[in-house]
Amino acid sequence: MKKIFFPLIAIIVIACFLLPGCKAQNKDEIVIGEYGSLTGSEATFGISSTNGLKLAVEEVNNSGGLLGKKINLITYDDRGLPSEAAIVVQKLINKDNVSAIIGEVASSRSKSGAQICQSSKIPMITPASTNPEVTAIGDYIFRVCFIDPFQASVMTKFAINSLKIKRVAVLQDVKNAYSTGLADFFVSQFKAAGGEIIEVQSYSSGDKDFKAQLTAIKSKNPEGVFIPGYYTDVGLIAIQAREIGITAPLFGSDGWESEKLTEGTAKDALEGCFFSTHVSTEDPSPQVQSFIQKYKAKYNIMPDAMSFLAYDAGLIMFDAIKRANSTDADKIKAELSKTKDFSGVTGKISINEQRNAIKPAVILEIKGGKFKYKETVNP
Ligand code: PHE
User: Fold this and answer.
1) Which domains does the chain have, with CATH numbers?
2) If you measure from the C-alpha of residue 302 to the centroid of ligand 1, how many angstroms do you get, rounded to a whole number?
3) Would you say the pTM of this structure is higher than 0.85?
């Protein structure tokens, strides 16, 4: 008898950690999960977004909570790894019994977390992942930012109309779904707009030596180099590009955004370069400026695009729960898809049929290591 009894108890105890619904939920709170890169090479993504989201949670809790309950935000670090993202999302669902999930910034990690949310039928909003495949994973997956085909068209028009360049090289990160996706969208749109792609070269995130790729690019004498990568590599790429004598402007996308981009000599290497992103802190609108004030008062630093977007992602999720008047996943999902003209700190947000947001992009210019507002491009 004992022989089966004890193993059986052990199995039940273990199963309680792995299966949903075993942890008794506190009836006075609504549990929301978040996953992000709080450590690892892209830590600024995770830290900025959790700061923004915490601000949203704090504001709602201080003004009476949600459905009369306090929001309890549980945040896990995925260390910047897609495999870890899947593990922590599973834990949020099975162990913490969350009603909904916010995350991630990086598209490759959002894709991995979204698979779990979709199969577990838990609504997820990514604040900042722009690769179209993320929300295509299924009807529980939403985003509050634009997608990369749009971002590619923004930089295509900018290159042709503002920089007045037609012969462009592309340098993509083959380890990053966001980067290869955006490179492909850019190549086809730039060609369709009459431009010429004279070279496409690849690297892998974390590489330290880009000289071979840059030399190949330089030999084609481009008028500009499009680099849809993350700030973690772009600074070093820029330094080496200048070292081997590439003087053409480098231009890129939202993944450049971190104040770490222009650290050290990258500041000079990137002078006069451009990237597209979601918001400019120089935007004089009251929504943007009051968010900056609140954020600075709490954290003593400036917010970046991820902080703004995560704040909006949180408020949109809480608003959907409020309208659903329930934490039932299907009801939240139904309300999320009805989001229309939500007035966020990143502008007016409406969710379309593909569960994406249609929003303008801004182009920033790097001047003296700072990101200066250049122009807004409407969809
Ligand atoms: N859009 C990037 C991605 O999908 C993430 C990102 C968003 C990075 C905003 C910086 C700023 O991977």
Assistant:
1) 7-146+286-359 (3.40.50.2300), 148-277 (3.40.50.2300)
2) 18
3) yes
